[in-house]
């Protein structure tokens, strides 16, 4: 029975409770309130003001944030880490102090692309190690016989054309690996033109016919190979990003469902499903205890959602994944960091908390995650956000587990550290704000609690 139905009906004027009044009649029921009409309300400017302004601001902000980080990756490129590896063991050509491998790698690392590319001169072992940890987006390798194969072009004993190899790293994402591949191939082509210039100026080039000179002008072949292979069911390196997005979205949506559901169950919000409307009796509970309840429920429900995400992606869709116990533990802790943060923000900001949380965990986080577009290919503002925005940290940790054998130096250590920081900030901010509100007596505006509602 509805609690309000049990309230006593008002007595007629002049009557006494429990008594009788033979000469009196029941008071007429109050008139039904006049129903408002949409046509009348829609002409009220104040009704339009808040939702219009807020919707416009959100639309503009989302457009600028999302597109601002993706419209010009090449133009925003800044110090993309790529290795250049010299394994050339040939003797210097006549008139040269160094063999061609040393000259090519030296020219590349000193080139004008230094602001766009961070060329790193590494050994083969060093380059392979950094490709396997995701710290390199690609590599350009000069083979051991490079100088000798170039020298053979001027003789009748040329076995094959000289070759430079561009190594890709699909584990860092398809766009990042593609950018690195374009850069290494362009660098190799420039090196080929420099080698061709030397050959044309040599005695063999000066006496050659037109067809031979055309061949010598660009004599080097560029081969492409995978430096660190990943599985076929890895979305060309994008499954780590989308898996992280699933963790964030499921935690974000789930935390808001808990927030709204608890408020409705405790009588602090109406519950409407289709045409049915209910309002439960208000439970006497302060803000701090309410937040504690919501966080505890969020922690419990995320156990289920994390498990279901893994079942759907790995068992059903056959996504390539290893280290499954570690992946589950990381996924749960990462999702919980998001869920706790959402509850803290909702507790602090009230009605607009869900919008604030959406910007913190999605709108600002997606373009600064480095998952789809490398952080080295976005404007500086997003690289700054990537230092602390949660999705970047979670994406790096997921990528390390899925593609780089769960190596700590592939971003996993930083991810665990930032998850712990996220938990601490959520607890400190959320309970700090609710304790302040409770201490100041800033109670939520609700009807008086119904006795026995907490029983």
TrEMBL record:
<feature type="region of interest" description="Disordered">
    <location>
        <begin position="1"/>
        <end position="36"/>
    </location>
</feature>
<feature type="transmembrane region" description="Helical">
    <location>
        <begin position="356"/>
        <end position="375"/>
    </location>
</feature>
<feature type="transmembrane region" description="Helical">
    <location>
        <begin position="295"/>
        <end position="317"/>
    </location>
</feature>
<feature type="transmembrane region" description="Helical">
    <location>
        <begin position="240"/>
        <end position="258"/>
    </location>
</feature>
<keyword id="KW-0812">Transmembrane</keyword>
<dbReference type="InterPro" id="IPR051328">
    <property type="entry name" value="T7SS_ABC-Transporter"/>
</dbReference>
<comment type="similarity">
    <text>Belongs to the ABC-2 integral membrane protein family.</text>
</comment>
<keyword id="KW-0472">Membrane</keyword>
<dbReference type="Pfam" id="PF12051">
    <property type="entry name" value="DUF3533"/>
</dbReference>
<feature type="transmembrane region" description="Helical">
    <location>
        <begin position="47"/>
        <end position="67"/>
    </location>
</feature>
<dbReference type="GO" id="GO:0005886">
    <property type="term" value="C:plasma membrane"/>
</dbReference>
<feature type="transmembrane region" description="Helical">
    <location>
        <begin position="415"/>
        <end position="437"/>
    </location>
</feature>
<feature type="transmembrane region" description="Helical">
    <location>
        <begin position="329"/>
        <end position="349"/>
    </location>
</feature>
<keyword id="KW-1133">Transmembrane helix</keyword>
<keyword id="KW-1003">Cell membrane</keyword>
<dbReference type="InterPro" id="IPR022703">
    <property type="entry name" value="DUF3533"/>
</dbReference>
<protein>
    <submittedName>
        <fullName>DUF3533 domain-containing protein</fullName>
    </submittedName>
</protein>
<feature type="domain" description="DUF3533">
    <location>
        <begin position="56"/>
        <end position="420"/>
    </location>
</feature>
């Amino acid at each position: 029975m509805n609690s309000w139905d049990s309230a006593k009906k008002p007595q007629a004027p002049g009557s006494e409770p429990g008594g009788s009044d033979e000469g009196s009649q029941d008071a007429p029921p109050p008139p039904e309130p006049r129903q408002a009409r949409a046509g009348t309300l829609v002409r009220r400017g104040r009704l339009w003001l808040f939702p219009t302004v807020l919707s416009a601001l959100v639309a503009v902000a989302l457009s600028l944030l999302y597109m601002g980080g993706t419209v010009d990756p090449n133009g925003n490129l800044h110090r993309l880490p790529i290795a250049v590896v010299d394994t050339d063991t040939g003797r210097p050509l006549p008139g040269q102090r160094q063999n061609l491998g040393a000259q090519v790698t030296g020219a590349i690392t000193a080139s004008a692309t230094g602001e766009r590319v961070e060329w790193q001169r590494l050994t083969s072992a060093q380059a392979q190690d950094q490709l396997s940890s995701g710290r390199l987006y690609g590599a350009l390798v000069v083979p051991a016989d490079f100088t000798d194969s170039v020298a053979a072009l001027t003789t009748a004993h040329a076995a094959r054309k000289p070759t430079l190899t561009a190594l890709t790293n699909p584990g860092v994402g398809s766009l990042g690996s593609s950018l690195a591949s374009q850069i290494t191939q362009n660098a190799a082509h420039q090196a080929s033109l420099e080698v061709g210039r030397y050959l044309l100026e040599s005695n063999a080039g000066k006496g050659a016919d037109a067809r031979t000179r055309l061949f010598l002008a660009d004599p080097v072949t560029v081969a492409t190979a995978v430096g660190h292979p990943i599985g076929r069911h890895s979305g060309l390196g994008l499954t780590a990003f989308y898996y992280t997005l699933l963790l964030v979205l499921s935690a974000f949506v789930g935390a808001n469902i808990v927030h709204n559901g608890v408020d409705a169950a405790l009588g602090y919000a109406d519950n409407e499903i289709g045409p049915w409307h209910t309002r439960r009796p208000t439970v006497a509970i302060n803000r701090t205890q309410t937040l504690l309840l919501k966080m505890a429920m969020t922690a419990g429900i995320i156990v289920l959602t994390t498990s279901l995400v893994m079942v759907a992606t790995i068992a059903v869709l056959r996504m390539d994944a290893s280290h499954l116990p570690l992946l589950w533990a990381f996924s749960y802790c990462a999702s919980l960091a998001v869920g706790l943060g959402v509850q803290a923000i909702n507790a602090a900001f009230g009605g607009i908390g869900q919008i604030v949380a959406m910007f913190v965990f999605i709108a600002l986080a997606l373009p600064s995650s480095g998952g789809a577009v490398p952080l080295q290919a976005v404007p500086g503002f997003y690289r700054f956000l990537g230092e602390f925005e949660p999705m970047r940290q979670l994406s790096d940790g997921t990528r390390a587990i899925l593609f780089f054998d769960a190596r700590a130096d592939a971003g996993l250590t930083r991810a665990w550290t930032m998850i712990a920081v996220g938990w601490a900030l959520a607890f400190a901010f959320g309970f700090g704000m609710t304790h302040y509100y409770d201490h100041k007596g800033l109670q939520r505006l609700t009807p008086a609690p119904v006795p026995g509602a907490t029983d």
